[in-house]
Amino acid sequence: MKIQLIAAGAIASLALAGCATSPGYGGSSYGGGYNNGGYNSGGYNNNRCADCGIVTRIDTVASGRTAPSATGAILGGIVGAVAGHEISSHTGGSKGNQNVAAAAGAAAGALAGNKIQQNVTGDSYDIQVRMDDGRVIVVNQKDLGGIRENTYVRVVNGRVVLR
Question: What InterPro entries has UniProt attached to this entry (predicted)?
Answer without folding.
Answer: Bact_OM_lipoprot/Surf_antigen, Gly_zipper_2TM_dom
